[in-house]
User: What shape does this take?
Amino acid sequence: MNVVWTREQLDEGVKRLATQLVTMLASVPRWALVGIRDGGVPLADELADEVERQGAPRPDRGDVDITLYRDDLYTGLEKPVLGDTDLPFPVTGCGIVLVDDVLFTGRTVRAAMGEVWDFGRPDFIKLVVLVDRGHRELPVAADLAALALDTRKSDRVTVDWERREVRVEPGAG
Assistant: This one.
C-alpha cells in the first residue's frame, strides 16, 4: 500500500476545497452539502466546518445512501446493507453540492443524483470530491477535486479518515 497524501496534505486539500466552494457559491442564496454514504459524509462534515471557519454562513447538511439506487443492486450484491438518507431541508429550490471521497466510474454519483431528485427539484447539483482517480464509465465530472490521481482501473484508492491519509493499493493487472 502506498500513501499518496499525508495528514497535512489532506487537511490542506479540505481547506482549499472549502475556499473554492465559498468563492464558487458566493452569489447563491441557498445551498447544501450532501455527503454520499459512506466516504462523502466525513468530507461533507469537514467542508461545512471549514466553510464556517472561513466566515461564510454554514451550509445545510444532508446525507444520501445510494444502496437502492445502485445499478448493480440485483446483480452483484449478496446482501445489501441499507443506510439512512437524511435531507433535513427542502431540496426544491436549493443548490445541492454532492460530496464524495473518491470519484471513479461515476456510477455512484449517478445513483446519488437520482436519489436527490426523488426528494425534490434542486436549483442545481454540483460535485465535490477529495480524489478524482479517473476511469469514468459515465459522463460525470467533478466541479471541484482536491487531488487527481493517475491510477490503474484495478487499483484501490482509500481515504482513511482516522489516519487522515489517502492510500493506493495496487491491483492485479
Observations:
- The CA atoms of residues 154 and 173 lie 7 Å apart.
- The chain has one domain: 2-169.
